[in-house]
Amino acid sequence: MQINLDEVEYITETALTIRGSRRRTTMPKEIAEHFGLKDGDKIMWILFKDGKVVIVPKTGNKD
């Protein structure tokens, strides 16, 4: 995956935690604050056929 660093505002990595059937990851504070995400807000995970993943915040859409 090629990333143009001129277009990047923030980059970090987090660990995946798997316990039984549950899989969790922690969103970095800086990203949650940037989008104004609060507990209970939803994010959409999009997996492309080439293996890339995009995460899209869905603020205001608590279903």
- The total number of structural domains is 1
> What's the number of extended β-strand segments?
4
Q: What is the overall silhouette?
A: globular
Helical content stands at: 10-25%
CATH level 1 name: Mainly Beta
Note the run of SSEs as H and E. EEHEE
Give an overview in words.
- The chain is mostly beta strands and 63 residues long.
- The protein has one helix at residues 29-35, and strands spanning 16-19, 22-25, 42-47, 53-58.
- The strands form two sheets. It has a two-stranded antiparallel ribbon with strand order 1-2. A two-stranded antiparallel sheet has the order 3-4.
- The N and C termini lie far apart (33 Å).
- The mean pLDDT is 85.
Summarize the structure.
The chain is mainly beta. The protein is 11% helix and 32% strand.
